[in-house]
Amino acid sequence: MTKRLIKADRPTSKDGRAYHLHTRLGSLSELCLLVGSPERATMIAKNFFDNPKLVGNYRGFKCYTGFHLGIRMSVVTCGMGGPSIGIVLREAVESGARIFIRVGSCGTLQPEPNVGDSVICTGAVRLDGATKNWAPIEYPAIADYRIVAALVQSAKELDLPYHVGIGATTDCFREGQARPDVDGYIPPRLQAQHEELTHCGVLFYAMEEAALFVWCSTHGNLRAGVIDAIYANRVTGDFKVTGDEQAAKIAIHAMCLIAQGKF
Q1: Is residue 72 classed as helix, strand or coil in its secondary structure?
Q2: What angle do CA 185, 188, 192 make, to 5 degrees?
C-alpha cells in the first residue's frame, strides 16, 4: 500500500482531512457561524440546529453541521485571537464555508450598552499582529455591509436589544485592553490608548474582528460579519457571562435572511 505524501507547506491529516479542524470538503455549509469556545458551538448546535452532526472535533475545534428551518448551516470553533481564527478560516473555506458570522463576546467601552445586549460590528481598529501577515496596517478591517444589514434586520425582527459600531481588536485580553497585570500595573501607553479609543467612540474590545474581516476580504473577498454578546461594561464595571443565546438567535436568523436572498 502506497503511503500518502503530506506536504509541509500544505499539511493535512493522514487521511486527507483539514489539519486542525479534521473536516473535509463538503463537511461545512456555505453558511458558517464562528465561535470562540467549543461549548458555545455545542450550545448552538443543540439548541438551534435540527439533526446536528459533529463533523470535526480535534484540538478543541468542535464543528457541527445541521439545519435551521430547512437551511443547512454550520458552526465552527475558532478559538481565541487572530492567529487561531486565521488558521480556522483557511480550513473552513477548504471544507465548504463561504459566508461567515462570528458569534462572540466583548467588553464595551461606552456607558450606554447593557451587559447582555448584542453588538453588531461595522469595522475594527487593528491593534493585533495577525492581520499584518495579510495586508499592510493601512488596509481597513471592515465587515461586509450586507451581513451588517442582515444582522440589524434580524435583531429588529426578533425585537432583541442591539448596538452597532466599531470594535478594537487586540492580541491581549488583559493589558492590551487596559486591564491591570498581576501587580496591578497598567502600562501608561496602553492606558492612554484605552482613553483615546473611548474618546473616539470605539464601542467595544474583542480579539478576533479585525482578523476575520481582513482575512476574508484579502482571500477571495468572502463575506464576513460579527455579532457579540456584551459580557463587560468597562465604564460601569459590570461583568456577567450572558447574552450568548440572544446573539446566536440574531446571527442564525440573519443567515436565514441571507439564504433567502434578502441580503
Answers
A1: strand
A2: 130
Cα-based angle 167, 173, 176 (whole degrees, multiple of 5): 75
Which of the 8 DSSP states describes residue 128? S
| Domains of the chain by start residue, with CATH | 31-259 (3.40.50.1580)
CA distance linking residue 84 with residue 108, whole number of Å: 23
CA distance 159 to 226: 18
What is the rounded CA–CA span in Å between residue 46 and residue 38?
12
pLDDT digits (tens, 9 = 90+) for 102-146: 999 999 999 999 999 999 999 999 999 999 999 999 999 999 999
Beta strands 162-170 and 118-127: pairing type?
parallel
Collapsing DSSP states into helix, strand and coil, what is residue 134?
coil
Report the helix count and the strand count for the chain, using DSSP H and E. Answer: 6, 10
pTM of the model: 0.95
DSSP code string of 35-63: ESSHHHHHHHHHHH-EEEEEEEEETTEEE
Closest by Cα among 227, 28, 16, 260 to 122: 227
